[in-house]
Specification:
Order of helices and strands: HEEHEEEEEEHE
Shape: globular
Strand order of the largest sheet: 6-5-8-3-2-1-9
Radius of gyration: 15 Å
Number of domains: 1
CATH topology: Jelly Rolls
Largest sheet: 7 strands, mixed
CATH architecture: Sandwich
CATH class: Mainly Beta
Oligomer: single chain
CATH superfamily: Protein of unknown function DUF192
Length: 164
């Protein structure tokens, strides 16, 4: 196992333990009820100097059904969890917030992993459209304020690994 792969797995496990989710689910505690995120992968947001700005555990949405459903009805518990949408090819992407109860930051990422634009502080429960500034193969959704909190900007790089 490579050093990077080991480090990614260790970071993911640390995040899960910090969230107190021994069941393997990321999200609200049972007392808060509601759907939780599956910990399918880990995303690292990388600064131009190569250092990691932020790490998230993500649910991966790559089937048409999963991408259509997205985070509808789910709330992200903190800045350490999100959803990664994966498309077959880079193309212009447009998202909305219908049935999504919490404001999000949407990071549109090209096929090479470069952030091409960010739709920050989206409007919950709305049909307002948020579009990529060019062909995007990935869209990362994180809690609103994620990009500001970690200083993530256009030109940063996203790298990700599956946990299973």
């Amino acid at each position: 196992m490579s050093g990077l792969h080991t480090a990614v797995i260790a970071a993911a496990m640390a995040v899960l333990m910090a969230l107190g989710t021994g069941s393997g689910a990321v999200g609200p505690t049972p007392a808060e009820a509601g759907p939780v995120l599956r910990p399918d992968g880990v995303v690292e947001m990388v600064k131009p100097d190569g250092s990691v700005a932020a790490t998230l555990v993500v649910e991966i949405a790559e089937s048409p059904e999963a991408r259509a459903r997205g985070l509808m009805g789910k709330a992200l518990p903190d800045y350490m969890a999100g959803m990664l949408f994966i498309f077959e090819a880079g193309q212009p992407q447009t998202f909305w917030m219908r049935n999504t109860p919490s404001s999000l930051d949407m990071l549109f990422v090209d096929g090479g992993g470069k952030v091409i634009n960010i739709a920050a502080y989206t409007t919950p429960m709305s049909d307002q459209l948020y579009s990529s500034a060019g062909p995007a193969k990935y869209v990362l959704e994180a809690k609103a304020g994620f990009a500001d909190r970690f200083g993530i900007r256009q030109g940063y790089t996203m790298r990700w690994k599956r946990l299973r």
